[in-house]
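Structure tokens please, single chain.
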Amino acid sequence: MPNAKLAERLDAALPQTQCTQCAFPHCRAYAEAIADGRADIDRCAPGGATTVRLLAEILGVAAKPLDPRYGAPAPRRRAVIDETRCIGCRKCLDACPVDAIVGTNKWMHTVIAAQCTGCALCLPPCPVDCIDMVATAPPADAGPWPEYAARETARWRELAEARRARRARGVRTGAPRSAPRRGAALRDAPSAEQIRAEIAAAVERVKRRRAGA
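Here you go.
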């Protein structure tokens, strides 16, 4: 078993996009693999050179270039669903590692912009290709990573952990978003009212597009 405290420190150095580019199912799994010597520090493309340096400092080793086999740093992006083409299959809900997509079976889905990590894991399962990844500006308080802020990566970590805990209990992902959540980062997540407002806004966008067609 990896050193839990070391794995926790390593996990905190990762940007928590949960993108799986490192070949592990989530950021915590990668941190644990580094802690017990199963993986090197050069696999986190979203974190780039900043993450490699942070991991190296924690381990007391020399930094190294990113391994190109695991991708390269890229400008920040977020998912956007074309609501006019969405068929409500909920495959993207099941794929999102931080529950940033809201909707229900056979009804249009939409993305909570502030909660999307840009992992792009929702793209492959979409049967109608109605999801695009669009460029988005880094937050004003980005750091230590150029593209991400520590406050949002902490929130993504807790959201991902909560989702994995639900799955371990046999609860399907994409659970009702009005369910109460715990933890400081989770308390910062959008409220049920905000989620309803985003869905209502998405519905209105579809109505306007159809009216103008």
